[in-house]
Amino acid sequence: MSERVIKIGLLGLGTVGGGVYRVLQKNADLIARKTGVRLEVAGILVRDVGRDRGLSLPPGVLTDRPEDILDDHTIQIVVEVMGGTGPAFDYVRRALKRGKSVVTANKDMMAEHGKELFDLTREGKSDLLFEASVAGGIPIIRVLKQCLAANRIEAVMGILNGTTNYMLTRMTAEGTDFQTVLQEAQALGYAEADPTNDVEGYDAARKTAILASIAFNTRISFPAVYVEGISRITAEDITYATELGYVIKLLGIVKDTPEGIEVRTHPALLPRQHPLAAVNDVFNAIYVRGDAVGETMFYGRGAGALPTASAVVADIMDAARNIVHRVPGIISCTCFEERPLKEMGRVRCKNYLRLRVVDRPGVLAQIARVFGDNQVSLAAVTQKHSEGTKAELVLVTHEVAEQNLRDALAGLTGLDVVERICNVIRVEGDS
Amino acid sequence: MSERVIKIGLLGLGTVGGGVYRVLQKNADLIARKTGVRLEVAGILVRDVGRDRGLSLPPGVLTDRPEDILDDHTIQIVVEVMGGTGPAFDYVRRALKRGKSVVTANKDMMAEHGKELFDLTREGKSDLLFEASVAGGIPIIRVLKQCLAANRIEAVMGILNGTTNYMLTRMTAEGTDFQTVLQEAQALGYAEADPTNDVEGYDAARKTAILASIAFNTRISFPAVYVEGISRITAEDITYATELGYVIKLLGIVKDTPEGIEVRTHPALLPRQHPLAAVNDVFNAIYVRGDAVGETMFYGRGAGALPTASAVVADIMDAARNIVHRVPGIISCTCFEERPLKEMGRVRCKNYLRLRVVDRPGVLAQIARVFGDNQVSLAAVTQKHSEGTKAELVLVTHEVAEQNLRDALAGLTGLDVVERICNVIRVEGDS
């Protein structure tokens, strides 16, 4: 009896696509034993079919015509590894409409168009799997959908962007400033020439939207995520955070609260003993708190050809197994609730503040009064170095609603003794 | 249209059983939405049906007759949370023979009788799920079988026993000795009156056998695991390890090597910067290295009613979903290879040694010669405190085959300058 074969079409053969192809080849026998079926890459969509990619590809497998893959009825699984929301989105829709299962690593597409795509699978009874779209090789989508499914998820906090985690790790270890470490990251290929997407938090925010959608069974799209990046973090902030017993990390945070769900991405001070605090360099990790399981954390490489391929190929194997057993879509969209989002002004955090003030008696009293008038209570105030008539103050608030803090900050800018509010960074994981 | 119901039978209502019941009740609606079916606990086997367990149970659900559950054709999923390999094993066999799906938290049974039980599911097309048998609430069985399925697994190292990790954490933090911390753990309920199973490594070794079976697709039973416990670790060992930049952890270790697979459980020195080194107190964690994904780690609570229930109920949900879609056993036994085990004598490690020797010139030369004669090369030798005519030596070897080290140790015991080989502990995670 000949072995059953399932044909796959790859859309894209860049870093991730090349990794997927290599893993499918290298571990072909293992994959066949585990799924009961041999996976054959029958077509790969590329822009330039003539380019040498250092891969030994069967003749004729490359094509620059999407219809060669999307209209081929023998291809049952389409693997989208192009990225972006342009043609990729169009191709995935077409694949799903034709009843094909789709595996994608595309966070942009899933964070913006997840609902529309899942609606197409419901018609077509196909799989739409996207493990690689969040945290690369770290299993988290399937973990939330399946392994931790018995839990009501209380909180998810993730280090979801390797570039910024590398930069913050270097800034912490070496005391270097943001611009220096950004250039270093660019030289190493960890940061792009235009680093906006990483350093301003947009990449992490898209992943945060996807995590929130799954954690709370409620569709959250990227524009609903509150975002702040790390470009305003200075060497001073990191030094002071260290002195206070914290590290600074860019976090994707989703929380269940009685007033709605919180979905936000911003830098935060984390206590040094928090499980996420030791996650350094380009590594990613996701901390999940569930009502039954308690605290868990999942750690690994959030990017790179082979780690991402690990997640993509696991999805392909699931899709193939589901085709063999005639149950594509057995675990489909889990956004069956519509929970309200909490306004950012009502989010409650501790906060770290760094102020530049006039260095003379009575200044602290004026500042403290503004905080008090806005129901912001201070946990700690430290005067850092002073230069001539100016001094730097570091303050840590107790937990306070964001709106009260904003009102207090507005009040501070009206004081002539406050020269500048240098930075405000939320504190997480401290309760 | 009335909602579909799947009936469940619980075998046991102790700590884990009570947790499973509570999670099923508390998150009943969420579970129904995710699986498409309502789960009803139709029978619970207990020894004493009259005892008050602080749970609000429907009348008549408790029984002391196993046949009430095993012979009830309306019960489709049997959840075994009794533990041990006596009646539990018999009941699970009977359930599988009747075509029921089985969810179990029973590491003893799975580590000793996994093959026989899986053979029964192959006949019956039922699920046998056992996520909770290793590391409590941490997803690792499904992670290896599904999420990391595209990888050839190179190594798994786990902190799999909370009791011993708590003890080692306290010994490290406080410098206390083994007996003191054992009594403390017993007073807190972390260690049992007879602590043998935990402190001698048998509990961790059973979990190691299960992890090895899945990681290498090769059935490894508990008796095949090399085991050493932590009862010989002293406060001195921990102090010296700290000085060398290591922490001591009890690890379950499985490794793929050209000469066969290694499956062992023993204390080990881990570099302080290793991801597992920061896993403290009763927490568990499993580090997995795959050929595609690279380094990953999974962290959480390895025991306790609710964390374990999180894993058990996730398995119940999978089993229920598979029944609804008529695909029980869609992911079944993955032991389709028979890879050879490597003899312990051929395992290569760095080693830490603590010796009590006569404190006089020329002693080190004699010792070094014995090591050299046995092809054991030393990376570091430090003389620790001396008392009168005796001194303590701490040595670290380069990587060496276990047999060569054993031969060297036999040679040392023949030297009259060596009073005692106080301890030998392997070093892991250092390459």
Automatic annotation (TrEMBL), chains A, B:
What enzyme category does the UniProt record give?
A: oxidoreductase
Which positions fall inside the ACT domain? Answer: 352-431
What GO molecular function terms would the record report? Answer: homoserine dehydrogenase activity; metal ion binding; NADP binding
Under the heading Gene3D superfamilies, the entry gives:
3.30.70.260, Dihydrodipicolinate Reductase, domain 2, NAD(P)-binding Rossmann-like Domain
What is the protein's given name?
Homoserine dehydrogenase
Query: What InterPro entries does the database record attribute to this sequence?
Result: ACT-like_dom_sf (IPR045865), ACT_dom (IPR002912), Asp/hSer_DH_NAD-bd (IPR005106), HDH (IPR016204), HDH_cat (IPR001342), HDH_CS (IPR019811), NAD(P)-bd_dom_sf (IPR036291)
User: Pfam family example for this protein?
Assistant: NAD_binding_3
Annotated binding of NADPH, by residue: K107
Give the keywords, sorted.
Amino-acid biosynthesis, Metal-binding, Methionine biosynthesis, NAD, NADP, Oxidoreductase, Sodium, Threonine biosynthesis
Which cofactors must be present for this protein to function?
a metal cation
Annotated positions binding L-homoserine: E192
Protein family per UniProt: Belongs to the homoserine dehydrogenase family.
Top-down, what is the taxonomic lineage of the species of origin? Answer: Bacteria, Bacillati, Bacillota, Clostridia, Thermoanaerobacterales
Does the record bear Metal-binding in its keywords? yes
